[in-house]
């Protein structure tokens, strides 16, 4: 089969690989019909993620058709159209029993923190991902769902991560009626977090980025106010001005460790590897939220950080909430919103590339060229 493979930082290509086989009775093999590239894939592509091995196939956002099932699989059959959450999880451990699917204890030899994720290095279990023609889906009775007939493929695909994560980010913000919500980052996760904040009672939603074309999308798709941080000497002061000098009730970080906006943080992390990335978006969140407010972190961070304003978070009495999204938890509510016509998730898709051209897709997304927001990958073309 054809599959995207990692060759080293900024180097990927499409190679011939063996079609995966059933390795456990509860596995399924899924023929991928549509995949996507996520902002999280960029951390792998940039070589930021430890233990990303040569030959690894990325891709944790995909839908497809069941090709084969193991002997114990009961909920799926050959030919079913399925959407697969990015988390791999057993469904029965202490953590899964409490809905913490992204923290499953049975799927990753390094499971002290994160559980299993498709195509996300050996740090998250070493499972090959879905930017390929076929993918092995472990615990097939647990994660995947049959795509309802009235849900379009592209919308189902976006629910496998970006949409569910944005919605979860807004949920963790514990938004109360009338709140002002600031979303840092106007990528897919930030756009969906901003859109979801209205569902939860926000009175104002302000999206911050420095890419004008993405801020335009935040206005048109998420109906948000926008601020370009490159146009302000100090974006935190601007956020305070916008919120009666108190700060926002809730700030959602949808940026993560590769944040722009502070040269010293960039040099100490990206160039000299003195910390696991730049904490600048997180610090803007801590500074920009009001005392007693909530910071919800969806942006991805490596384990070690040295310059996070933790003391300020303490002294302001903040609530900090974060996790990798337990994707399937958000699906019932998201189906309702889509069916009610509240929004069309696929409105954020800007590019559709054949699997054979996926390297071009990564390059456009990484360099934020050609108005790129979300790229879908079509295998078999
Ligand atoms: N927690 C989870 O389960 C989960 C799931 C998916 C993605 N993520 C993470 O969420 C983050 C966003 O993902 P995405 O797909 O939207 O990525 P993306 O790269 O498309 O978007 C990130 C955006 O942040 C902007 N940005 C950079 N520095 C900024 C700053 N200091 N302040 C405000 N905006 C800034 C960029 O210009 C870009 O538009 C990534 O870190 C990704 O790894 C986490
Ligand atoms: Zn992702
Ligand atoms: Zn589990």
Bound molecules: nicotinamide-adenine-dinucleotide, zinc ion
Largest sheet: 7 strands, mixed
The share of residues in extended strands comes to 15-25%
Apparent shape:
globular
CATH topology category name of the largest domain: Quinone Oxidoreductase, Chain A, domain 1
In DSSP terms, counting alpha (H) and pi (I) runs of 4 or more, how many helices?
12
List the secondary-structure elements in sequence, H or E.
EEEHEEEHEEEHHEHEHEHEHHEHEHEHE
Please indicate the count of domains: 2
What is the C-level CATH assignment of the largest domain? Answer: Alpha Beta
What is the CATH superfamily label of the largest domain? Answer: Medium-chain alcohol dehydrogenases, catalytic domain
In the CATH hierarchy, the architecture of the largest domain is: Alpha-Beta Complex
User: How many angstroms separate the termini?
Assistant: 12 Å
Determine the oligomeric state from the structure.
single chain
- What Rg do the Cα atoms give? 20 Å
- Structural class, judged by helices and strands? alpha/beta
Care to count the β-strands?
17
Can you walk through the features of this model?
It contains twelve helices and 17 strands. It is α/β, with parallel strands linked by helices. The protein folds into two domains: about 210 residues, Medium-chain alcohol dehydrogenases, catalytic domain (Quinone Oxidoreductase, Chain A, domain 1, Alpha-Beta Complex), CATH 3.90.180.10; about 160 residues, 3-Layer(aba) Sandwich (Rossmann fold), CATH 3.40.50. The strands form four sheets. Strands 3, 4, 5, 8, 9, 16 and 17 form a seven-stranded mixed beta sheet that branches. It has a six-stranded parallel beta sheet with strand order 12-11-10-13-14-15, with helices on both faces. A two-stranded antiparallel ribbon has the order 1-2. The model has no long low-confidence stretch (mean pLDDT about 95). Bound molecules: nicotinamide-adenine-dinucleotide and zinc ion (2 copies). One zinc ion binds next to loops.
